[in-house]
Amino acid sequence: MIFDSLGASFIYGFLLRRGKISGIADIDIKMPIFFILGFGLEFGVLNLTDKYPIIMTYRAYIHFLDYLMLFIGLWYNRHNKYMRIIAVGIILNFIVIFANGGRMPVSVNSLKAAGIGYLVPELTKNIIPTHQAMTSSTKLKFLCDVLYLPKPYPLPKTFSIGDLFIATGIFLMVSNAMINASKRVKI
Asked: Which end of the chain has fewer CB atoms < 10 Å from its terminal CB, N or C?
């Protein structure tokens, strides 16, 4: 959803509201290394598990370290009102992930409703290091990936309430930075 919200913020902030892309450079993000490390860990877990099967053994610890990096980054940026919205989403995702053993539960019905049911076999085989199929024993189901965007949306997907907060915060932060940059130019 991060890339979706970035795309939407460009459409809204740049194309519709005539903002300046250069405004993105004005976004004050302190200690971005923690966000880079957090996303880097997540990317590594998702893309290196096949090559290094030991990642599956330690996936919960790695995922925890990933979130620790994000929490530290959020702490340094607590002054930013949009980061606080993002923080709500990250906290909600953290809660549901670690209440369910370190992976985000995904509704199989939502995957099918979104038109991406082809992902169900991998999910039910329990081989995805960051996600698992939602079952009757899943805790906090309302925080899991139960929401979905079906076609005609170009990138059908399932997502959580936490993802929605994260996407909203990113959208507001980026689009407002572009809009505010265009206002400064018109002095």
From this structure: C
